[in-house]
Fold each of these.
Amino acid sequence: MTEHRTAAHRICPFCEAACGLEVELDGQQVSRIRGDNADVFSGGFLCPKAIGLKDLHEDRDRLRTPLIKRDGQFVPASWDEAFAEIERRLLPIIARDGADAVGTVLGNPTSHKMNLLLAFPKLAKALGSRKMFSASSIDQVPKMLSVGLMFGGWMSVPVPDIERSDFLLILGANPMVSNGSLWTVPDFRGKAKALRARGGKIVVIDPRRTETADVADAHHFIRPGGDVFFLLGLVHALFDENLLRLGRLEEHTVGVDQVRAAVLPYAPERMAARCGIGAATIRALARTLATTERAAVYGRIGTCTQQYGTLASWLIDVLNVLTGHLDSEGGAMFPQAAAFAANTRGKPGVGRGIISGRYRSRVSNMPEISGELPITCLAEEIDTPGEGQIKALLTIAGNPVLSAPNGARLSAALDQLEFMVSMDIYLNETTRHADVILPGLSPLEDAHYDVTFTQFSHRNHARFSPPVLARPAGVPDEWDTMQRLIAILKGHGSGADIDALEDAALLEELVKTMGDAAPQVMAALTPQRGAERLLDLGLRSGPYGDQFGRKPGGLTLAKVKAAPSGIDLGAMAPRIPEVLRTVSGKIELAPQMLLDDLARVAADLDAPAPELVIIGRRHLRSNNSWMHNLPVLAKGAYRCTALVHPGDAQRLGLLDGGSAQIRNGARSIVVQVELSEEMMPGVVSLPHGWGHNLPGTQMGVAGERPGVNLNALLDENLRDPLSGNAVLSGVAIEMRPC
Ligand SMILES: Nc1nc2c(c(=O)[nH]1)N[C@H]1C(S)=C(S)[C@@H](COP(=O)(O)OP(=O)(O)OC[C@H]3O[C@@H](n4cnc5c(=O)[nH]c(N)nc54)[C@H](O)[C@@H]3O)O[C@H]1N2
Ligand SMILES: Nc1nc2c(c(=O)[nH]1)N[C@H]1C(S)=C(S)[C@@H](COP(=O)(O)OP(=O)(O)OC[C@H]3O[C@@H](n4cnc5c(=O)[nH]c(N)nc54)[C@H](O)[C@@H]3O)O[C@H]1N2
Ligand code: SF4
Ligand SMILES: [Mo]
């Protein structure tokens, strides 16, 4: 290395795998990005998206100064002007209509930015609105609800212990492309290969023969939305064939008999037609699952974004429990995160459980889940007049105009708002509607710790990334931007001393949680501030922490910082009953809300398969809606194609490479057809996150090949009634050449 060449470490901010990267710098220029071979968690793995970090950092479209809309045009503004504008326009709305007139939207990249994630709860508290929305309700709320009911925590999601497992049954997930979700597992391919090399097996259940199916031992097509029927058949077979084997879970589980009674009507022979998987296959899978010592069932977005999302999510863990694979080595286990996990705090083994539906949405009467309403209710909450109507909106790292169903209605609704603020790095399909845009830093200018993904990691670890590059002078990080907004909301004014306010707020919080120890703890955390101070607090008071001196040698932020490639905290270890936070202190196998919902299943047993349905798809070089402006990832073959089975194509007169109209009621889009034997007959696949041809955006590269918006076709009123999650998969369509 020459003198001015240096290397820095950064956790990749692009997906849940959270790979440790080594960023080589030539002065302030990124010269190379590769996997950090010494990383204790990812061991050098990376995917093609990682190198996009350089393009993102250098992207000229990435916003660097606030924008204020004046007479319909965005003009660059100073930070002081932007905050003053927000104060001037937002506060009168709250004064007039109350805090519920202000909605907030939290998008996916929030999870990849410690500053946003740790500051947002404080902003939400300062605002005090019940109109909170996030990408969770087009993603994983069904899983959050099912594990919440079963284990007592929204985030208590068991994840496959892949390195010690001998059988994985994977439904509705494509970790070869997505790199894992609610399961932080870098290098899935390598781990799957090792599993098979030691004699293990992987079976994939998916309406498309995916990249993951390609590295598995078997793949079965399933009718989209059919998972609940398939899973009920499996659970039925376990009881029917005396395959139950709860082992040590027995004394910690209630509800086994209720589940037995509930699944009685759902013999595999009765389920086969509805799910598209034969009874013999279902029974054989039940036997393999029950008789393999180390095995796990895992389901992801395909099992959530459908009308039975919560039931399917629940049944996956019912299978894990009944076969004794939950909380057991090589099975589905609970990570123990070093900081911030609710299931590591408070009294172990028992708790208040979760409560949903404390309030409901105004228009569609959907229940609140974990303090949020379904994002598919956002447009109607804005465009339906009446008391409680949303008049102002704050979006944070979210692009719901593309990522949620019926963006056209949402776009029109956003134009009706009296005021909208977006914290975002692009002027895109959603933020074009804002009155003020507040940019965030490039990930290379920001510190990071994975608050979220350490809670879903297949192996426990702690890693911290300091900023790789200095941030531009005078530009606040997203923590400070949120502190300014908090100061405005609390009436201290946009020019307040945010450091002093933050100190006072933290001390107050510490006094509440720690009593007399608060001043001492405050002193121990000082002079750090911001998210890093909270992180130090979380680590030191967490399960591996030094407990502020009471456990010498325990974790502190300083200690984690001293290990640039991270600290390994070991394989997952059994946590039942300690991890539970249910009222009973038991695993609740048969929550009443879920048993009741089986009535919908019973009524739907004989529904014929629609002639054609549509599902989604992800691509390795893309991430949801926002990475299409990075040249290194955007190049290559056109990816926003509709995959159609050749048999369907022939029947419908569709040609490979030709264009076709897809119609869902009054909505339609025009797509490019790609014939593919990967597809289950009767199922079409189109990726989401495209459609960059709306006016008023500033994403030059993305605009060159805009693609088509799958969500323009989908119905915002179709939801899983329990969780409110959008139905994005298995929607009936018509298709014809054009
Ligand atoms: N049909 C269909 N729709 C889907 C899905 C599907 O499978 N099918 N998947 C859904 C899923 S799982 C998810 S998570 C959602 C995602 O939906 P969203 O959460 O809306 O995520 P994105 O579309 O990725 O938009 C991310 C936004 O964050 C901004 N951003 C990126 N980095 C930063 C940053 O560092 N700071 C700030 N302030 N902003 C930043 C981007 O510019 C963009 O505006 O999409 C969902 N939509
Ligand atoms: N490269 C890349 N990686 C990503 C993302 C990305 O956009 N691109 N997005 C990130 C985000 S936000 C998330 S949430 C995760 C998602 O992570 P995954 O859940 O692994 O995502 P997908 O690749 O969409 O896999 C879902 C699978 O479900 C299948 N499917 C559709 N409908 C059904 C159904 O009814 N039943 C069953 N059994 N299967 C069905 C689809 O064919 C697809 O193969 O990925 C993350 N990682
Ligand atoms: S797998 Fe995900 S975290 Fe790893 S390099 Fe790729 S985008 Fe980044
Ligand atoms: Mo997601």
Amino acid sequence: MEKKIDTLPLTSTHWGTYRARVTNGRVQELYGFEYDNDPSPIGSGIIDVQDGPTRISKPSIRRSWLENGPNSHNHLRGVDPFIEVTWSEAEKLVANELKRVSNIFGNSAIFAGSYGWSSAGRFHHTQSQLHRFLNCIGGYTKSKFTYSFAAAETVVPHILGSYRAFLDTCTSWESIRENTELFVSFGGIPLKNGQISQGGTGNHFQKKKLLEAFKSRTNFINISPLKSDLIGEVNGEWIAPRPNTDTAFMLGLAYTLYELDLVDYDFISKYTVGFDNFLSYLLGKKDGIPKTAQWASYICEIETEIIKTLAKKMSSKRTMISISWSLTRQDHGEQPFWMAIALSCMLGQIGLPGGGFGFGYSATNFIGGNFVIPPAAAFPQGINQVKDFIPVARISDLLLKPGTNFEFDGQNYTYPDTKIVYWAGGNPFHHHQDLGLLMKAWKKPDTVICNEWCWNSLAKRSDIVLPCTTPLEREDLGLTPRDPYIIKMSKLTEPYQDSRDDFDIFSGIAKEMGVLDNFTDGKTKEQWQKWIYNETREKSLEQNINMPSYDDFIKKGWFKFPNHREDVVMLEDFRADPINSKLNTPSGKIEIYSETIHSFGYVDCPGHPVWLEPCEWLGQKDKKYQLHLISNQPKDKLHSQLDHGNFSRSNKINGREPVYINKIDADKRNLKDKDLVKVYNDRGSCYASIVIDNNLRSGVILISTGAWYDPIDPSIPDSPCKNGNPNTLTPDKGTSSLGQGPIAHTCMVEIRLAEGEIPSVTAYEPPSFI
Ligand SMILES: Nc1nc2c(c(=O)[nH]1)N[C@H]1C(S)=C(S)[C@@H](COP(=O)(O)OP(=O)(O)OC[C@H]3O[C@@H](n4cnc5c(=O)[nH]c(N)nc54)[C@H](O)[C@@H]3O)O[C@H]1N2
Ligand SMILES: Nc1nc2c(c(=O)[nH]1)N[C@H]1C(S)=C(S)[C@@H](COP(=O)(O)OP(=O)(O)OC[C@H]3O[C@@H](n4cnc5c(=O)[nH]c(N)nc54)[C@H](O)[C@@H]3O)O[C@H]1N2
Ligand SMILES: [Mo]
């Protein structure tokens, strides 16, 4: 008899918790966890690719590298065939190369920022594994902050004293439901994103919470180029300014509040510093340009009356301003966050139930949760002796410009000279902007090593490819501070062919290098998992939370942290007592003007929020390309993960990535549904299939990220991508000297019918072998 679903073994992913039916050594089906309100269909994407030709079966070495040694024919990365070797040969090759580079050039020549999401599972967290291993041999050059919101991670601590602390304590949906009358969301609340929670989630609550708020009292406003960034069921108003003009829009709102005497000066004087300095900019005393609603209207292409009406509404109602993370991933991405906080200060509702601002409701599931944050222990990474780093998105600059200087958050640093790139658990050929430039940069290092489970665009462009397991093939703990559920992840199937857990891969290399005991600390994988659990359990006791013993937890398979008894209200304590609960800023208050940032002297990020023209946008004079490309997060996968699976591929059109376009823009170019088109600009191009969709602002097109990079000629850096990867088009530039964040959402392109025969997609085929 078939087992009941709720007795099947559990697994956890960034897109949710599932129970798995396993027969004949394969996972046949994944069922949403019985406590999940809204399980994600993304999970099914792994079923058909858990084994088979896209899996990496053995350690594989690029031919020229193996035959001629490091730094040989680097331009053939992605072209050369691979040669399979045994694990002991691979371990020796990696160990010798690490020793060579460390001895001659020092460990700063090993770049292992290795940004990326890898898989859920606290112990097998790939970056922790890689970093701990490299710290055992003297360290590595790291990367700082995330692609998600690097600009906010840099600027918000200057304004509020921390970013992460407030990200994790956004006002809970319960407080919104009971109090918020107007929910103004810049970048919307696209539920496609709420499928994801970093480290996993037991229950997708976003949709339910959104509907509850709507039914209770909340009016939603979606300020975004895409109508679909808010679900139709909540009947929201759609305002679609030109992309990247949100700061101007908010300045127009701020000016209106001032003009109509709707500013809460009590709040301003009690809780903030520097308003007067900002006000003189707002009123045009600094640059002769008052930032009126009409001024904003001209920049945003939104009627003045809409801006003025919204400002009045915001001040007369309990208002929550939600600011999407996407607003940081654009040129001058520091500004919209700073300006949203300044605008909230003017409204004076920060710290009140359902009022103030929040950082991206539904960028992921966890924002707006009201659970006690689990004090989740982690696999210790050790101490990195190397001080060099890059701001996360400066990878091409690092490789292309060793020895040159860069600015970051008020200081000047130097890029080290990189000889080895070691990537595990991320994919720069997915996440980085201007892939043509990255292709050029990729020729520079002597050696590229990666741990991967599938032959994706990174594995194909590496010299040494070490095959790792997927979470289906190993035991782990689903544990994260961003979700109340702790999940016992079961080993469901045996590792595919010769693949190994990252821990075992690094143990093998560590042994070869004489640091095995340092790396493992004498513990097995099971012992480490138990250690992480018990550390977390001990810390939980301090909060009077009784987690079950490890053995009881393993028996039951999961544990849930309780909810807070009261709703979470961001900055409530600060509002109640700004002296004893002062912020960690120089003034202890919210810094609408920051003397610190001003003192850096950055023209691209002065001492208070300002409107700065992006490097490319619809309002640019004499612009060469007419369409603004939005490359948002994909609805059917996480980044590039499982793009090769059935679920993602079922959403392709004629086998290519869809590009969404408004009918007006399509008609102008004579384009019809399903046409194969070339999307292009000076940086590169890709092919995609047309979907006509009037839920896009005209002048804007959309290609979601995630399609595996697949250039027609992999030996040419700007060869068109057959598979529709938008990062062939996006610019590689920092948000500003302050944050140096990525700016994927700032990108102008043109589009036309594809000419001639376009070669078919080969992204999902393994490379050739000798
Ligand atoms: N144009 C554009 N580009 C963007 C964005 C955008 O909005 N627009 N968004 C950016 C953002 S916010 C982000 S976070 C990044 C995401 O970029 P990444 O996090 O780099 O993207 P992923 O596809 O999640 O890469 C994770 C990789 O880890 C591998 N992996 C999974 N499990 C394991 C494991 O157990 N061991 C090992 N060794 N590997 C494993 C997967 O196969 C996959 O290749 O992309 C950024 N890029
Ligand atoms: N399904 C799925 N969910 C995900 C991910 C995934 O890969 N797949 N990735 C996760 C990760 S790593 C992250 S960081 C978060 C990111 O969360 P977000 O940053 O919120 O994600 P995006 O989808 O890039 O952007 C949300 C919306 O912002 C709008 N937008 C873009 N530019 C502008 C602008 O200039 N102004 C305004 N007002 N709106 C704009 C776009 O229409 C877009 O749909 O998503 C997470 N959730
Ligand atoms: Mo992200």
Amino acid sequence: MSDRTAGSYRICPLCEAACGLRIEHAGGLVTRIRGAEDDPFSRGYLCPKAVALKDLHEDPDRLRRPLVKRGGVFVEVGWEEALEEVEAQLLNTLRLYGPDSVAAVIGNPAVHRMGLLAYFPRLVRAIGTANVFSASTLDQMPKQLSSALMFGHWFSVAVPDVDRCDFLLMLGGNPLASNGSMWTVPDVKTRLKDLQARGGKLVVVDPRRTETAALANQHLALRPGSDAYLLLALAATLFEEGLVKPGRLSEHLNGLDDLCAFVAPYPPERVAARCGLEAATIRQLARDLAAAPRAAVYGRLGTCTQRFGSVNSWLVDALNILTGNLDREGGAMFPKAAGFAANTLPGPAKGVRMGRRKSRVSGAPEVYGELPITCLREEIATPGPGQVRALISVASNPVLSCPGGAALDEALGQLDFMLSLDVYVNETTRHADVILPSLSPLQTPHYDIAFSQLSIRNHARWSEALLPADEPDDWEYLLRLTALVQGRNWRAPVAELDDAMLAEELARSLPEAFRAPVRAALGDAPGPARLVDLALRLGPYGDQFGRQPGGLNLDQVRAAPAGIDLGALQPRVPELLRTPSGRIELAPPEFLAEAPALAAALDEPAPELVLIGRRDLRSNNSWMHNLPLLAKGPERCTLQMHPADASQRGLSDGALVRIEGPGGQVQARLELSDTLRPGVVSLPHGWGHDQPDTRLRVASERPGANLNALVSDGQRDPLSGNAVLSGVAVTVAVA
Ligand SMILES: Nc1nc2c(c(=O)[nH]1)N[C@H]1C(S)=C(S)[C@@H](COP(=O)(O)OP(=O)(O)OC[C@H]3O[C@@H](n4cnc5c(=O)[nH]c(N)nc54)[C@H](O)[C@@H]3O)O[C@H]1N2
Ligand SMILES: Nc1nc2c(c(=O)[nH]1)N[C@H]1C(S)=C(S)[C@@H](COP(=O)(O)OP(=O)(O)OC[C@H]3O[C@@H](n4cnc5c(=O)[nH]c(N)nc54)[C@H](O)[C@@H]3O)O[C@H]1N2
Ligand code: SF4
Ligand SMILES: [Mo]
């Protein structure tokens, strides 16, 4: 074996960059973790979190066997006993109160576990509950909604073609810390520096001078929550100054005039004060964007977690279209994933439907099959028909990750039954009656179902399980739980249950004549690998089960040492479009209807102090604080504040402060930092590991404060249901 390939290949499951790793191990212990230099996609890059996979694998607090709560105390049991407990309690709730009484919530790590991602929807379907929630409504639902309404599918998300781009305008993203999001772009820092070295420009719009903003050619520290007005003004300037040039896309557009009319009332001069920027700066930015040979506008988390998150997400792509940069090399482009991408499959263009049902208490509409996660607490806490009495949480820690976390914590205590699929006893799962663990990432194979649809290069990569396991994996639990809910024999061999499910799915999705040969070709080994093979073979590069000789299948991907490169992104309009009109909808009525709200909010008085979040390269949402390698070093859960704001309040660096917001109050250490726009403070989320009855020995030594105890669960973007997390009014005083 050459040194390039020494060590087993593993796709890093920790963030969206999905870097290829080389992991060496001996005697069941990890001895070395490096970037896989032969990975065509990540080219050897890795960040410190990947090295902590060793800590995760060896963490004594990580659950290895199911837990059942007996007399208020968790005891380890075998899988059968754990499922018997679920059977007794969950089926009882279902029988007595019906499907909606059982809610399900799925969190971020699930998107990195193909078994959870592939089998969770089946369980939800089997239960038949309307009460499905996920981290998507704390995150990217606005982008998925705007993509759906403009291009016809929830996952038709355009990503900056950074390697061929000359001008990148980035709003509300800090990829130097996050490693990119809704944009799978390993080693983003090198790629951004390369862009600059080519003579290109990076412009970052962010209330904080982040790591990415510090690298940028220009940083605009706008007022939190004002992106919609900035984007409106940029578009208005393009129209006003005759800079609108959609080019090749012109013949595929609907609604150009409506868009023009919508943005016209917002020239830079009208929004400058609201944005906290100079009108001339905004005007010049529009001109720079229009003048750049190849440019992309990218909006991420900070633009989604606002009242106008959907409008922002829409206008970001509208700008890409108006400047002729959507779907062209060096602009914002659509990946063509090897598998699982609905926008690559043939079929009628139907667009998307939403609002098919409403949440019981607040009447929030369903979006992409789910309800806003900020409705979860009230659905549990509000009595009446349809009340949620049981919860299944899958890789989700909403007590720390969802606004109103403290109130949700209380609500979880009122449930009749709670089942968690998780790897820790933490702030959320401590409420569970049964916990079913996942295996360590080193014990499971992996294919990136989601991130291959958001990647800056098309590729197909697979990683094998590196270490053996003697416990069931999470998908087996989900499979048995599905059988249990369906009243089938859940104790049957896994292969039998999985075969039955596969047969049903083939019957649903394939013409009859095709089913038997496909079924035979997929083999007898149960589990997600078979589904990946199916998706790859029916996908756009696939062998179509023999009809496309030489085409892709899982065997080929497995045989490649670090995956198969399928090349740079290519233009996909109109082939990609799935809107009923077959065109790009530049002015969907849902967004046009936001005009009065935008007009009303323009002159809202500014709160004195607002809170935004923060990510750190060495931390990941709520669950990696128990890994010693990442936990060491300076305290990370600090409240950052501009020195001018601090002196105004008589606060000094390092002071313990009390922060009060609409959801409650917490305490944190103050860190003075001139990286913040005055009037803005920043606290990271995912902390607050000081709850009793958790099993996080390392994390609880430096617990930090729960940001989401400050934020209330009542603020949403009404279109996408996404939570408002940015720009929340707070007060800060000495504790
Ligand atoms: N205020 C504020 N709140 C935020 C954010 C913010 O920026 N500001 N960001 C939001 C965003 S973008 C997101 S995505 C959410 C994330 O929030 P969540 O979706 O809650 O995700 P995590 O906090 O990453 O972890 C959830 C759980 O997954 C478990 N877990 C880890 N690995 C595995 C595994 O392999 N199997 C199983 N079964 N479980 C596992 C962990 O133990 C943890 O309990 O937080 C959101 N909350
Ligand atoms: N190291 C690390 N990596 C991660 C994660 C992590 O927790 N740690 N989480 C992962 C997850 S789940 C996600 S979703 C991604 C998120 O990845 P990113 O989208 O890059 O998210 P953040 O790093 O939170 O950057 C959001 C930025 O928005 C800014 N912001 C806040 N309010 C506003 C506003 O009103 N307008 C504008 N323009 N900007 C604003 C913030 O200051 C912040 O710099 O990161 C992923 N990667
Ligand atoms: S950037 Fe993300 S995917 Fe890459 S090594 Fe770090 S945690 Fe893993
Ligand atoms: Mo996220």
Amino acid sequence: MAPLQMVDLKRQYLKIKPQIDAAIANVIDTTAFINGPDVKLFAQELQDYLQVKHVIPCANGTDAIQIALMALGLKPGDEVITPSFTYIATVEVVALLGLKPVFVEVDEATFTMTPESLKAAITPETKAIIPVHLYGQSAAMKEILDIAAEHNIPVIEDTAQAIGGTYTFPDGTKKMNGTMGAIGTTSFFPSKNLGCYGDGGAIFTNDDVLAEKLYMIANHGQKVKYYHDMVGCNSRLDTIQAAILRIKLRELDGYCDTRRAVADYYDNAFANHANIITPKRASYSHHVYHQYTLQLDNVNRDKVQEKLTERGIPSMIYYPVPSHKQKMFDGMDVEQVELATTDYLNKRVISLPIHTEMTEEEMQFITRNFIEVVNELTAN
Ligand SMILES: *Cc1c(COP(=O)(O)O)cnc(C)c1O
């Protein structure tokens, strides 16, 4: 068995190598490196896939959130509600723009923003809400959208970890993650479910006015070349990355299915173990398992990781420090919040390898050893 990795991009590449190599060669051959035809074609294909009116490609998933916030025309000091239990990018751009992050709690079982804590955090200063579809699972969008609508606050969905996943509303309507709020954002970082071979990102919206603004902000505030109507930034998706993404988008549903199959295997293997709590699948969410993140109960997590490493099994903690406790917010106008569930989860979560190329042998090896290690550490 080859060394285990959290994500195996090499094996994935080898399966689509001829198409990828040809697509890259074609971009180089035509030297259409910036805003080449593949960028527009990819945006159109992603629009069709997501059933959304506009896709604006950009340089990465962090820029995507930044540009989304800029398009809402917020003023310094406006409050933006986000979970603390997320990758730092979600929160960092809020602070970068001089806006005030207001951290709210996540659900203990689904790891996503709770409607109750969102409701409690809303003030007259709240000007945006950013739910995160963490680990590949949709946030509780019906409740979040209802609360947002009641206060007329736009929702930006951070879909960096959940592209390809869907949310089902109580009336049975199904929507792709990232297409329910005013704006959706995603990342094409190589390890994401739809990853390119470098950096990339995109912004989605069904709103024509917002779409134009988003496009302009990502392109130096211009609609017509050299005429700059607003302060924007320079955030483009490279043509080479777009060409790669066109090929990988065709594989995305298959990639999501294989990730779900790994999660099924793990769930079965760990079912009913007293110290292993498998991730919950919310009934409204088609979970696409960007991560397989479980909780350890009454086991020393550091020791588990140590013993897994000895056995050649990688594991990760996403994320070791919650956003509201990061030093970057020291001295900043961030409310001192108590987030008991976030702190609790931060000490309990551990993520196991999950990717599109896992073999039965690898899954068997990982689950057998994981259970052995947990049993050893809880034996007395
Ligand atoms: C990866 C990620 C981002 C940022 O994406 P980049 O392309 O790395 O900038 C934002 N939010 C979440 C939840 C992510 O996982």
